[in-house]
Amino acid sequence: MSSLLEQLIDALRCLPGVGQKSAQRMAYHLLERNREGGQRLSDALKEAIERIGHCGQCRDFSETPLCPTCASASRERSLLCAVESPADRLVIEQATGYRGLYFVLQGRLSPLDGIGPRELGLDQLAARLAEGEAKELIIATNPTVEGEATAHYLAQLARQAGVRPSRLAHGVPLGGELEYVDRGTLAHAFGSRLEVES
Fold first, then answer.
1. Where do the domains of the chain lie, and which CATH numbers do they carry?
2. Which tens digits make up the pLDDT trace of 112-145?
3. Which residue has the higher pLDDT, 12 or 195?
């Protein structure tokens, strides 16, 4: 049986990007300098694991059967935005004036990793689109190979339900300079150029 310290270090390694050395530093910090913070972390983590589930409508994290966004009467129900993760939903919510609803995939299609349509809840999304309330599906997956494959699949689902699919624009960042933009981004931006409004 390993010691409590070894168990703590090993437990901290479950976090993304935390290797042996980082986990060791965290454990030592909590034990040497911040036991009170460690106790708060422990309590908050235990409570979150026990009480946070998924919204029955959008699959985002929620403490209630319907998250506050889905339960809100002030949201625009004809707009539905599909995102890969709760973090993506939060970024869109904070950075834009979007007032529609969401569908959180909790991942992206990746057959090599065993993630298919079922794991992403796409049967639930198809049923939601078939209800007829959504008129547009805004596809906000990341511009990766898996994200693009997921976007293509989502667009097909939307069309089958008579819902207009749209895709977030990708291209040159605001304030960016062309000489510093990577070739793939520049090629995509060039191919997706828009007419200049007068």
1. 61-167 (3.40.1360.10), 171-198 (no CATH)
2. 888 989 999 999 999 999 999 999 999 999 988 8
3. 12
The pTM assigned to this predicted structure is 0.82
Q: Find tokens 């106790």 and name the residue.
A: 39
What is the C-alpha separation between 15 and 161, in angstroms, rounded? 39
Sign, CA dihedral 157-160-164-169, equals positive
Query: What's the angle, vertex CA 89, arms to CA 155 and CA 71, rounded to 5?
Result: 95
Instruction: Report d(CA 145, CA 152) in Å as an integer.
Output: 11
Query: What are the structure tokens assigned to 129, written together?
Result: 């689109």
Please report which confidence band the pLDDT of residue 22 belongs to, taking 50, 70 and 90 as the band edges. very high
